[in-house]
Amino acid sequence: MSEPPAGPSRPTLDAIAQRAAVSLSTVSKVLNGRPGVSAPTRARVEELLHDSGYARRGALPERGGLVELVVADLLSEWSVEIIRGVERITREAGFVLALSALGDHLEPGGDWISGVLSRKPVAVILQFSNLTAEHRQRLRTRNIPFVVVDPAGDPPPDVPAIGATNWAGGVTATRHLLDLGHERIAVVSGPPDLMCSRARVGGYQSALAEAGLPADPALAGGGEFSRADGEREGRRLLDRADRPTAIVCGNDLQALGVMDAAFALGLDVPGDVSVVGFDDVAPASWARPALTTVRQPLQEMAEVATRTALRLRDGDLENTRLELATSLVVRDSTAPPPTR
Amino acid sequence: MSEPPAGPSRPTLDAIAQRAAVSLSTVSKVLNGRPGVSAPTRARVEELLHDSGYARRGALPERGGLVELVVADLLSEWSVEIIRGVERITREAGFVLALSALGDHLEPGGDWISGVLSRKPVAVILQFSNLTAEHRQRLRTRNIPFVVVDPAGDPPPDVPAIGATNWAGGVTATRHLLDLGHERIAVVSGPPDLMCSRARVGGYQSALAEAGLPADPALAGGGEFSRADGEREGRRLLDRADRPTAIVCGNDLQALGVMDAAFALGLDVPGDVSVVGFDDVAPASWARPALTTVRQPLQEMAEVATRTALRLRDGDLENTRLELATSLVVRDSTAPPPTR
């Protein structure tokens, strides 16, 4: 029932079994993520696999193999765009998408990695979340390439990652408002522990500085990337006597929330206040007024990540850290400031 | 390398190999969807497997096994809701979702079925599309249960299927408008080859008949389930001198298109014309005015389909044909007719 890989790597596995004082079948169980091995033995074998520089060399799988995608959750439009991109390239390559959602966790758990090892996917794509060093090592030992789409934190330099030009996007959104004549421009940002949030705010501040305008801390709000948080921060900013004439938002959902707040306060968008989103997910164009936003090419990012992962199987690539360009999409939620 | 199943079924496979005059390894290849078998041999072995009443009896797989979901495409909100429902139950059961999109095809192709057999999923869920008799037989031989969510056509009675009460939904939508005082109520329907479209129109006609009103053929339009088709049919219906005061639509996207048409013609929704959708996908609540619609419990349907499929592994269930209830969601796109 055990399946030691055929060919050149067999001697290595024999040696590892000997050094670990276990059977070859036990090494095979560890390698393939199968149960029936105690945790200490599993850890010892993993370490020996790593130290020996073992990496499974196998033929490319037949059609029907799996590309594993881990998304944060399935509720956001954001995740749906990522799924669409990964699915397209996966299908074109003759593979099938295996989809996991993290739910409330920030990183895939132990169950997940055992499942992955037993399913033997051709590649792993992670939205947003990072893998622990241990999980990265386990995937490398099995020669399973992985790529992160839009990394949340600051992944180690050897982790392939595909992002978007968030900082440049923040500049573009703010310059658009400056060009329309706005001078009191507020910002509602996303969670500060996410690199993309910080980069967008940085772009906003830089565009203001370029125009010789201060970034007024009283005009800065923030929260989760949700419509509810956008509405709360929108109400706070727009309820001020010296309210801003424009608001740059961390994402589209926040921007929709800011518009909700404006309407609730009896303000017109864009007559009284201009609003800019970020992402260009579907609700941005469905909104009324349709939302001016910075398009993040989410599907394309997911496609590039998947292609990169599939190519990594064939050897190292030169560029596994990329940022794809964002672009301004002007719709109906921005206009010159009201004349006073 | 061949993996004949252990235990009681082994003699059956030996007998099949003998009768087909092939090796046991060849039978195993056919059973597990592996290549290296000629098409005629594969067909002969499939037939013998079926005739012998063979059905693989295996232990429940460990955590990490796959539930296969086939959706029409990933572009519609509709599919996304189905994915969410199947993913949730799959995850809770300790399995992982394998996602395929049909793209332009109406049925999964030969590549798909070989892939499924080699991946050995614990269950298969199909959105909308039906399997060929041959594919159904192959899955049954491997004891892989399958369930259709919202069947498009009229599947054979032994195919488990979970739908929604489309006819009752059509009645509810139309009664809501009758109760508001409307008498000239138009319908924009979906493709007539889909059972769900026909059932919804049937419900509309029945509610009108109940109220003693004729179903005026001049007030009936139809097309694909798209926003563009909704706009085209909306323009045609609302451009009439004796335009309807309300329109019942085949789905939410058509309803958004009808609203686009109304606005383009300078009409107010719901002041001049009331609009009702069907499905209650996310854009219905994002629209302005927010759309009154008939909620189809898509996620719940997908969840019930997945639970049914997983339970089918343990033996036959009594009820594998269910329609879940639809319900009216009243928002801002319906009001009494304008006074003339």
UniProtKB/TrEMBL annotation, chains A, B:
InterPro entries: HTH_LacI (IPR000843), LacI/GalR-like_sensor (IPR046335), Lambda_DNA-bd_dom_sf (IPR010982), Peripla_BP_I (IPR028082)
Domain HTH lacI-type per the UniProt entry, residue ranges: 11-54
The protein's name: LacI family xylobiose transport system transcriptional regulator
Key words of the record: DNA-binding, Transcription, Transcription regulation
Organism lineage: Bacteria, Bacillati, Actinomycetota, Actinomycetes, Micrococcales
Gene3D superfamilies: 3.40.50.2300, lambda repressor-like DNA-binding domains
Single GO MF annotation: DNA-binding transcription factor activity
